[in-house]
Amino acid sequence: MFEVVLKNPKALTFSVLFHMVIIIAIVINFEFFDTPEPVQAGNPVKAIQTKLIDSKQLEETKRKKNKEKAEQQSKKLKKVALEKKAKELEQKKAKDKKIKQQKKEAEIKKKAAIKKNKALKEKEKLRVKQKAAAKEKQLAKQKEKLKRAKEAEKKQLAEEKKKQLAEKRRLEEQEQKRKEMSLKLKLKAEELSLKQSLLKRDYMIAIKEQVERNWRRPQESSKIESCEVRVLQGPGGIIMDVTFGDCDGGTSAYRRSIENAVYKAEPLPQPGDKTLFEREINFIFTPK
Amino acid sequence: MNDQSITTLIAHASLPVQLVLLILLAASVFSWSTMYVKRAYIKKNQAEASTFEGRFWSGINLSDLFAQLSVRQEKRFGLEAIFENGFREFARARKAELDTTSIVNSAHRAMKVSMAREIESLESNLTFLATIGSVSPYIGLFGTVWGIMESFRALAGVQQATLAMVAPGISEALIATAMGLLAAIPAVIGYNKFTNEVDGMVVRYENFLEEFTGILQRQAQVQK
Asked: Other C-beta atoms within 10 Å of B60: how many?
């Protein structure tokens, strides 16, 4: 029993790997996702009593604490208000002094500023003139650049158009080639199928003729007509069975003569192409 | 016992339960690998039968086919083996100039023997799968019963018994049943699938054998 398995290490490794995967999947699933919460040990009644007592005491102590806090806060607020008033008075005095000093400084600064402005305006006029000249030069340069760029773009567009046209031509040529190839292939296939069908017709005719050659006219029969014969053949043209299809006019003696002819024709001729071999062969027997 | 994961449960299990789990794991591994082997073998046989039938009915001369087969060195199986044995016996009997019926009979007998051998190799190891499929649930059940027995025995000495004392033991015992089913279900499915496929192959072989016997009979008559 185990020999087969041990002879095939591939099968064994497949199986072992498969089981390892399953086991790992199960372990991971149980340990990290589905672990049931452990039931807590101990007396649950006790826990509930202690909680009730605790809550009552807590409420009383909370009230006391709240009152004390409120008193302390009101005292603090009063102290803070007094301190604020003193500070404000001091600040007002300091502000008055600062304002006076600032006014004096401002007057001095204004005088100096007027002098500076005059000098600056003269300098700015010179600068503006220089800038205007520079701008004109730059504009001229930019115009030239634009012209060059436009020309280059035109050239590129023309080249691209040329390339696209070339590609189109190539594609068209390829398509034409493909069409030609497919046509050739179709023609070849048609030729082949024609050849095959011709071979098959030859094969059928060969069988029919071989049967008809081996036929002997039965003595008693007077009226003889064509008859549809169905032959089952095995490999090598061995006849397995003979049955008759549409054969209304034939007497039993006539049919027997055909059957004998088929068996005498054994082995049946083989087709030129072996793929054309068929187990069941139908043909119409026409006596001469 | 706060950690209830499956690994700790197995680690805490008693020795017989662990042994049962080990046996079931081994059984599962072996059943899967036999299924792998059998599947490959049956597929190979089916493919061989298809290709050989195609060749046989391609209109090739039987003695040519036989010559082609006997040139090949590799070991033959399936329809090829049946055909080769039958045709060899047919040729031997015809050389001995026996009458038609005894020629055909001896060829038929040789093919029957060959076919029986082929079917046997197709069916080999299927009983192993059937055994695992039917027995592993019982082994698992044994492990479970043993584990539950142990956990109840531990309860016997305690004054106040609680569920928490028995639950882990029963849980670990039930793992054995789960493992048994896990081993059994694929084995049963595989067994049913493979027996069905082997039956199909048997019918195919028998059909071929009858047809081939008819052909041989006709050939023997023609040669006379």
From this structure: 17
Quote the CA–CA distance of A255 and A227 in Å, as a whole number: 9
pLDDT of residue A45: 47
3-state DSSP assignment of residue A249: coil
Q: Distance from CA of residue A51 to its chain's centroid?
A: 61
Whether omega before A235 lies within 30 degrees of 0, making that bond cis, reads: no
User: Which residue, chain included where needed, has tokens 């301190």?
Assistant: A83
pLDDT at residue number A47: 46
Q: pTM of this prediction? A: 0.62
By the CB < 8 Å criterion, does B54 face chain A?
no
Enumerate the residues of chain B whose CB falls inside 8 A of the CB of residue A1: 125, 128
Sign of torsion, CA A217 A222 A223 A228?
Answer: negative
Q: Which residues of chain A approach chain B closer than 8 Å at the C-beta?
A: 1-2, 4-5, 8, 10-12, 14-16, 18-19, 26-27, 30-31, 35-36, 38-39, 41, 234-240, 266-267, 270-271, 274-277, 279
- The values of phi and psi at residue A238, to 5°, are -85, 135
**Per-residue model confidence (pLDDT) at position B34:** 93
- Residue A236 gets the label, from left (phi > 0), alpha (psi -120 to 50) or beta, of left
